[in-house]
Amino acid sequence: MKKTIFVFIVLSLAGGGFWFYTAHKKKAASAAEAQKFVPAKVELKTLRRVVESTGEIRPDNRLEVKSPISGRLEELLVNEGDMVQKGQIVAWISSTERATLLDTARAKGEDEVKYWEQVYKAAPLVAPLSGTVIVRTLEPGQTVSSANAVIVIADRLIIVGQVDETDIGAIFPGQHVNVQLDAYPDAAFEGSVSRIAYDSKMVSNVTMYEVDVSPENLPAFARSGMTATLTFLVEEHKDVPAVPTAALEYRKGKSFVRLPAKDGKEPESRPVKTGLSQNAFTEITKGLAAGEEVLIPQVVRKKGSGANPFMPGGSSTGSRPQGGGSPPTRSQGGSPSRSGAQ
Question: Which entry of 7, 66, 223, 292 is 20 to 30 Å from 34 by CA?
Fold first, then answer.
């Protein structure tokens, strides 16, 4: 019995010693850190919530113009990039029989060739729609058939974006879109959503929907097949009060900011309501006005605290920002989207 009591006393002393050591260590670490605040102004800013995706320039209507007869291409009247009108003659084609007669006539002389050219006319190939020639597949003298396209016409170019299913709910017809081509990153242009696909596609095991974007003023350097970055404007709040996101503290699902101390008192904690957020700023919809000052809490580690400088976050001097907890929900727009501000 005495042995049991002795073991119990030893364990109690050991446990008490360990508790005293850890408590003292926490107290020393706390004493080594002092909280300070950096002031910041409530500013008027334009905040945006956007969805980003990649896309590709494609013809809205891509039509292969094929020869109605088999034979030989005698003359091709258009080049890539040329504008054509519906019904315009784009090529002349000799049937197999006409090509054979002309080849035979050339052996008899120029007069014979002219005679058969007048008697046996070449067949015209006409453009079935107005648009731009984007592909020229054959050259005069080559054999053609009804299975081969002589040229390809596109009536206009659009940008087709791939939007994740988690973001498709934020996309709507007529929505403003900023388009930036990878080949010309400094020459962005504007467009709008013209169509949202009903059928999804699997891209790298992710469900995606195609979204057609009609450009307002398509640059002359745009070409079919170019890759683009699309930025869909979901929501925009202009000239709204905003504070640095680091100034916000979150407690029990509510947002707070700290105001400068008055009359030697501690900094005031004021509840606020927030709106749109971006990388560095958050909109304040209630509780603050432009021009007011808030405090951004920071923790400064005192010199000589004895912290190991080789451990993460253990430098003996310097500062690191301290937020006021984590937001109750994730940022608006989901992970694939982002917000911007001006």
Answer: 292
- Tokens (6 digits) for 28: 């020393």
Q: Are residues 45 and 69 in the same domain?
A: no
- Give me the half-sphere count of Cα atoms (radius 13 Å) on the Cβ side of residue 210: 13
* Statement to judge: residues 148 and 202 lie in one domain: no
Task: State the Cα–Cα distance between residues 331 and 280, nearest whole angstrom.
Answer: 12
* DSSP conformational letter for 291: T
Place of tokens 């002359």: 220
Residue whose entry in the numeric block shows the structure tokens 């603050």: 288
Instruction: State which H helix or E strand residue 37 sits in.
Output: strand 33-41
Indicate the number of domains in the chain.
2
**What are the φ and ψ backbone dihedral angles of 40, each rounded to 5 degrees?**
-150, 145
Instruction: Give 53: exposed, middle or buried? Use CB within 10 Å, 0-12, 13-18, 19+.
Output: buried
Q: Of 138, 156, 1, 154, whose CA–CA distance to 71 is shortest?
A: 138
Tens digit of each residue's pLDDT (9 = 90 or more) over 94-106 = 999 999 988 899 8
Chosen domain end from 106, 122, 154 = 154
For residue range 167-209, list pLDDT tens digits in order: 999 999 999 999 999 999 999 999 999 999 999 999 899 999 9
Residues 125 and 240 both lie in one domain: no
Could you list the residue range(s) of the whole structural domain that residue 298 is in? 34-60+156-342
Q: Would residue 28 count as lying in a domain? A: no
